[in-house]
Each structure stands twice: as structure tokens, then as C-alpha cells.
Design goal:
The protein has about 110 residues and is mostly beta strands. It is about 0% helix and about 40% strand. The strands form three sheets. Strands 9-8-7-4-10 form a five-stranded antiparallel sheet, with no helix packed on it. A three-stranded antiparallel sheet has the order 1-2-3, with no helix packed on it. Strand 2 (about 25) and strand 3 (about 35) form a beta hairpin.
């Protein structure tokens, strides 16, 4: 059967590509036999920022409110989304939110 080899630990928050799934485990390399337990992962969505301006406001909470803009993301930049909530998307492993209306999921 398949025999997994030891590899360095995966960094928390790393985005992994899955090449195969077997018995709750995900193969995370195409040419080597490296696997990670599915219990230690969660699905994310990849999106590209699409605004008519140069950047999209990033907020500390999923709503428009005075003082909650904490940064911007340039138009055409790719980001990873952890979850959606009422038209807002949470950026993976950060407490930062952007409007779904300005994202194109890829």
C-alpha cells in the first residue's frame, strides 16, 4: 500500500493543494508521498479583488462603520477566503473582512 514519508511540519495557515484524498487524509504533493490529516484542515476559496478603483477597503468587522477600515487590498490581488457572512468575506486566519461584491471567485 501507500507509505507516507516524513516531511517538515506544515506552517499553520499554509494554503495546501490537495492531489488525492484517502480515508480522511489529503495528499499535498503531486510527485512525493506527503499527506496531512483532513481533521487539521479546512476548505478555503480563492478570489481576486475586482474594483473600479485602485484598492478595496479592508475592515475589522463585517459591516461598514466609522473607524473600522484597517487597510486596503490592491485591485487584481488574489486572496483566500475562510467564510462568508451577510455579503462579507473573512480573509483566511485574519480578523479582516472585505465585501463579497468586489471579489471574483476563481
Amino acid at each position: 500500500g501507500d507509505r507516507a514519508t516524513y516531511m517538515e511540519p506544515v506552517t499553520i495557515g499554509a494554503i495546501l493543494s490537495v492531489f488525492k484524498e484517502k480515508d480522511g487524509w489529503y495528499k499535498i504533493t503531486e510527485t512525493k508521498n506527503h499527506w496531512v490529516s483532513g481533521r487539521l484542515t479546512f476548505d478555503v476559496k480563492r478570489a481576486k479583488v475586482e474594483t473600479s478603483g485602485s484598492a478595496l477597503n479592508v475592515r475589522s468587522e463585517p459591516r461598514v462603520a466609522a473607524g473600522n477600515i484597517i487597510g486596503t487590498i490592491a485591485s487584481q490581488q488574489e486572496i483566500f477566503i475562510e467564510r462568508e457572512e451577510n455579503g462579507w468575506c473573512k480573509i483566511v486566519l485574519e480578523n479582516r473582512w472585505v465585501r463579497k461584491d468586489f471579489l471574483k471567485f476563481i
